[in-house]
Specification:
three-stranded antiparallel sheet; alpha/beta; Rossmann fold; transferase activity; six-stranded parallel sheet
Length: 348
């Protein structure tokens, strides 16, 4: 079976993570993605070979100097035979290099142009790296222990989330059959992902606050707990889960969600005492068969070792494969394009 996006041709003028991740997800689904790189290659090639491979498998590459007349001519030729172009750069650079729909529609009025920026195409050129956006949108402020400093997660959540959102916008326009400009910003994506937190403030005046061990604002108990060995993530979201957990842990009382929320500190104390009697992996083994959401905290190496079905091989690289599983289709994972093969104006 061909991939569901077979026949869709996408150009990427991507830098580092957000843009390349978006188009890699599409390439994994069968789209023909051509990465447009400047002479010398896209900057993420300088990070490491594995970094570049993790974001650019299944693509072809072409080196173009988009600041030159010849580079612009070749870009126009590629646009004329493509369905979409996705770019993540500063707004001023996107416009200066002619990577908007208004600039490219003369070559193909059905081209979909997706611009990924920090604050929107009309939002200016302020620096907008992942960590900066997390700081600017409240994510860092609501993360960490109550008496500790703001905290950032250990991966690029804003870049990855924006990549997926941009891919969705790109596909929506292709399905519509119309060309046009799609504008996706890291700031807007992260604010959108704060959905119920934002709604609580906008409608009820409730600003988010931190709880110890990453505890949930509404559900109790729903957080990390220390055990006899390691930490356990326990997520009790309704009374049925609580009854099952309380029976297994030998606890009594607090039968309703309202009672547990009202007596949060008391509930957390008895749960912490009970969980200290076994290890995190021991509790995981006991609770999961009961259908209770629980997991021992693992490091990434352990998580990867325990999930071989999620891993793929692309040339010489072992990578995490596409999270989208489609019946009858498995991507043919190919390594990222080599820069020496991406001679100016030619694809590799």
């Amino acid at each position: 079976m061909n991939g569901p996006l077979a026949g869709i041709r996408i150009l990427e003028v991507g830098v580092m993570l957000a843009g390349p991740y978006a188009t890699m997800m599409l390439a994994d689904l069968g789209a023909e993605v051509t990465k447009v790189e400047p002479p010398g290659g896209e900057i993420s090639r300088q990070v490491s070979d594995s970094y570049f491979a993790s974001l650019n498998r299944n693509k072809r590459s072409v080196c173009l100097d988009l600041q030159s007349a010849d580079g612009q001519r070749r870009l126009g030729e590629l646009v004329s035979e493509s369905h979409a172009l996705l770019v993540n750069m500063k707004p001023s650079v996107i416009r200066r290099l002619g990577l908007t729909y208004e600039a490219l529609r003369k070559h193909n009025d059905k081209i979909v142009c997706v611009a990924m920026t920090g604050f929107g195409l009309d939002g200016g050129d302020d620096p907008a790296f992942d960590y900066v956006i997390q700081a600017a949108t409240g994510v860092a402020a609501m993360t960490g222990e109550p008496d500790g400093p703001p905290t950032l997660p250990g991966y690029s959540s804003a870049d990855n989330s924006t990549g997926l959102t941009a891919a969705l916008g790109l596909l929506a326009m292709i399905v519509s059959g119309r060309g046009g400009q799609v504008d996706v910003s890291l700031r807007d994506v992260m604010l959108s992902q704060l959905n119920y937190r934002a709604a609580a403030y906008l409608n009820d005046g409730v600003a988010p606050r931190r709880h110890p061990n990453g505890a949930h604002s509404f559900y109790v108990p729903a957080q990390l707990f220390p055990t006899a060995d390691g930490y356990l993530a326990l997520f009790i979201t309704h009374d049925g889960f609580w009854r099952l957990f309380a029976s297994e842990a030998g606890l009594e009382g607090y039968p309703t969600m309202a009672e547990r929320a009202a007596q949060r500190e008391e509930v957390l104390a008895v749960v912490t005492e009970a969980l200290a009697k076994d290890t995190a992996k021991g509790w995981e083994a006991r609770l999961r068969p009961l259908g209770i959401p629980a997991a021992a905290v693992r490091g990434l190496p352990d998580a990867l070792d325990e999930t071989p079905e999620a891993l793929v091989t692309a040339g010489d690289f072992r990578l995490v494969g596409s999270p989208i599983r489609i019946a009858g289709y498995r991507p043919d994972y190919r390594p990222p394009p080599q820069l020496p093969e991406a001679a100016t104006g030619q694809s590799s």
